[in-house]
Amino acid sequence: MKLNTLTTLLASTALTQAQYFTLMSIRSASPIHYGQITASGQRLYINRNTASYCPEQVGDACPAGNTTTFAGGSDSLSMGVIVPGGQQVYIDPVCGAVGYTQAHSAAMPQGAIVGGWNVSLGDPYGYLSRDRGLVACPAADGEGGYQVFGQVEGLVLSEECLRFTAFGINATGPGAWQYT
Ligand SMILES: *[C@@H]1O[C@H](CO)[C@@H](O)[C@H](O)[C@H]1NC(C)=O
Ligand SMILES: *[C@@H]1O[C@H](CO)[C@@H](O)[C@H](O)[C@H]1NC(C)=O
Ligand SMILES: *[C@@H]1O[C@H](CO)[C@@H](O)[C@H](O)[C@H]1NC(C)=O
Q1: CATH code of domain 2-179
Q2: How far is the CA of 49 from the centre of ligand 3 (A)?
């Protein structure tokens, strides 16, 4: 009886434990093939350094913060962070940019799209897909590289943009306390 209770408890803990993963962009014969999808300035990029923050009080308990992980992915998608309240991924309904909320805030642009994600993790890797697909466009901020966009209705993206497939690769835990 006691053992059963413990087993049930452990099983349900395992079920509710978040599975974290990193994302890789796949588009053969392109600059974004095998690119790492990273968080910076509330937006997602490919192969840009991850921008994160660790509060001084937390110190050594923070993850390294130099990799970008995600969690969830059945309909909604979150950043793989520890900060209470988490950080939700959304798509800007006007420009299509994939963004994420600031820590301690649920604020998003009006009409932000949060659903439509589907992760299926596997061995050796899985996939993250989204309604209408994902696209990378040359970053417009002069910092180089590519920025990640989601196709939204009525949006016409530049011809330099590339559709890509996203591989999901299991991670062992959150990549940062919070992404900035
Ligand atoms: C992240 O930082 C850790 C610790 O400083 C280091 O061991 C690791 O190689 C870094 N990873 C990346 C992807 O830069
Ligand atoms: C999610 O993706 C997997 C394969 O990548 C597919 O089998 C499954 O049907 C998808 N689920 C939804 C809800 O679209
Ligand atoms: C990744 O995790 C999923 C379950 O979340 C599992 O089915 C898959 O085998 C794992 N992949 C690897 C390479 O361990």
Answers
A1: 2.80.10
A2: 26
